[in-house]
Amino acid sequence: MIRLIYASSATTAFNENDLMQLLGKCRANNEKRDVSGLLLYAKENFFQILEGDEGAVEKLYADIASDTRHNGAIVIDRSEIEQRSFPNWSMGFKNLETFDRRKLRGYNDLLNHKLSKEEFGNLGQEIIYLIELFKEF
């Protein structure tokens, strides 16, 4: 089993309705593939953890990377895992633009501005840390 974490930039801003439609599709696709994870959205950036069978996760990521609603996708981490961090979520979701940051101890504003592909790569470990805070939330 693997965990894949990636970041990308939306080609246009997503409103709440757009995000809910995307989330519905993500959950349906992930349930079919037995993939779990978490999707975060902030300032036209997507951050996502995908967990599951290596073949299923890699195929799903290939589909995601070719989606024209975003660009600049970069894998921040690809690791073998013993167990899932989000076993009960076909796809958990947080819109960080409306999220009350005070509820999550250790959260900082790193993800609250539009990041470039280079920044995704340079800030990889910090992004992983922030994303993993949500497994306890």
TrEMBL record:
Recorded hits in Gene3D superfamilies, A to Z, give:
3.30.70.100
Q: Which SUPFAM superfamilies match?
A: Acylphosphatase/BLUF domain-like
**Membrane spanning stretches:** none
| InterPro entries per record | Acylphosphatase-like_dom_sf, BLUF_domain
Q: Where is the signal peptide?
A: none
Q: Which GO terms describe its molecular function?
A: blue light photoreceptor activity; FAD binding
SMART domains xref list: BLUF (SM01034)
The BLUF domain extends over 1-92
Q: Which residues form a coiled coil?
A: none
PROSITE patterns for the chain: BLUF
Question: What's a Pfam family this protein contains?
Answer: BLUF
What is the name attached to this protein's record?
Answer: Sensors of blue-light using FAD
